[in-house]
């Protein structure tokens, strides 16, 4: 292009049209919106979906490549779509982004052209055996809020967009073939016989369907309803109950009035919807509600407009949301980071209707007052970095909505405790700990308002003292969870202790010294499972003895640890790393042990039975959360250059801008939030401490536009592969000789300036006074 311009300029000069040089514009970096790539994580073990969703949207409208798997075999299809699959089964309206478990996939729609309409999905090995279709990745387009693909077996162009509570399909059919939709109420992820307990479909007129279904899956009893409106009238339909193999054909032809009304109920419903030959695209607008059909209809009406209107509105929302951080970095890094930011803003999802109604953990309908009910809380994952990221980049009302939703869920809970792993208001009891507690405490300590602090503290204490949950009864009585009474006892003890520390921090800030002292004591219970002889956190029996035999590399579900082993869990004392390091033998011993962890030879180990164990660097497992803070622990031992080296090792090997670019499940944004923080040069090792531990940046420059109107900028000089270490750091022009920054320093705005260099600086931030928070040394902060 530049040579062409020079030729034109030269030619024009010869004929007198140009007498002065013309400046040639330099290419501009793509916008954040155009840089984010929803295809990242759709292959490998990322478990993300490529379809359309608005920021924190209730509807995630996305293709499903296979929903015919059975329970645990569904792990690879937890998000419905898997990049390596050759066919698309249809497009459903609910999906998890990067979960380590499968569910959702509600209300699948598949466009079909021609006269032969099959009502079974068939096999991906034999696409003609059912309604699924082959496709090519070359026809796919995926951007935030929009997805498109050509279904080659039907010659149908399928497009998807989504608003907050609606999803909109647009199908362009061949003009010479009849257009149909298959609407399948039987399918979902996490399939097994009897998963769908009951479903209904109702034709309200020749443009509108409504209905509900009740499922038993990951959540034991979940109700979801829909309202579906077509841009063109139905010319015919058939509702089929395949359990009884009975079809209700309904009306045939373009009739109007009461003769078009049809209703069907059963456990295995599928519908054929006919539109005849179409001269223009068919739009299908769908809203969902966990309350009832009226709620779905109201949600449908709450977001008026056609496909292009909804798409434009959602695009504007994503442009604003992704523009919160301006990033200057190599293209691959920018793609990874803006995609990570996109993934971090999908959940917690809106779960309440436009009129404020929602379905709670008690399976009853409630109504909010002045806020939006949100759900999809993968708390064991997201308390670490995802939720702390939202406190920095989201408006206060969004963060307050999250806290109020947690609190109202505790009030609605039959057990009176905060959510553990909740979606659409329904509790799954998956994973361990009571990690809604650090999310609430961290928000309160950061000054986020909009919720009742006294009410929050009561809810936190209630969750931490509910004896039947995870054997808290014995934990409170004995100071640890005994392995002969409760599985995964070693992990539960250390995670409970951290959660207890966050209760103490919030209580202290509120002047509730009675509660603070009680929970500071419990925050030290990690000591009861630390074995000084082996240097590992271990499971202990009721008689006070450690369980044997002991293998620190063993990973088995339901054993001493949760999705990990002693190597990962022995570092989980974020509230008091100084005390842990002292117990381990001091700084030198800790640095050696951390090195041993990262450099461990796994060649004789087999973890193929453990689905979540991915992204191994020795015994460091980046694809699962218990390891996420470990690289930063060198800072606490006075060796920050070691943190810098390990972070480069992790970033270089665990993230890439490709469909298989995530080494493990994104876990509702946690893997992504880790990358965002790390690339900016700091990470919230201990949410609730109001500190971020400094690592090293991976961007030339990044400007974070804060909700209070200020900007916090990170600059890195000499940012390239030849300069992996931090030489010096300044904050607002003044030397920063500690390995952490505070939340207040970020929120005040300013500039964090790194100078990178080729060799480690072994004098920067090494003294005990320069290290991050530990309870035993800096409780008063």
TrEMBL record:
Domain of life of the source: Bacteria
A Pfam family per the record: Glyco_hydro_92N
Gene3D superfamilies for the chain: 2.70.98.10, alpha-1,2-mannosidase, alpha-1,2-mannosidases domains, GH92 mannosidase domain
Alphabetized InterPro entries for the sequence: 6-hairpin_glycosidase_sf, GH-type_carb-bd, GH92_a_mannosidase_put, GH92_N, Glyco_hydro_92, PNGase
Biological process, per Gene Ontology: carbohydrate metabolic process; glycoprotein catabolic process
Region annotation Disordered: where it falls in the sequence: 115-135
Any GO MF annotation of the entry: carbohydrate binding
Signal sequence, start to end: 1-25
GO cellular component, one term: cytosol
Keyword tags: Signal
Glycosyl hydrolase family 92 N-terminal domain sequence ranges: 37-289
Domain Glycosyl hydrolase family: 296-757
The keyword NADP is assigned to this record: no
PANTHER family per the UniProt record, alphabetical: PEPTIDE N-GLYCANASE PNGASE -RELATED, SECRETED PROTEIN
Protein name: Putative alpha-1,2-mannosidase
Organism expressing this protein natively: Stakelama sediminis
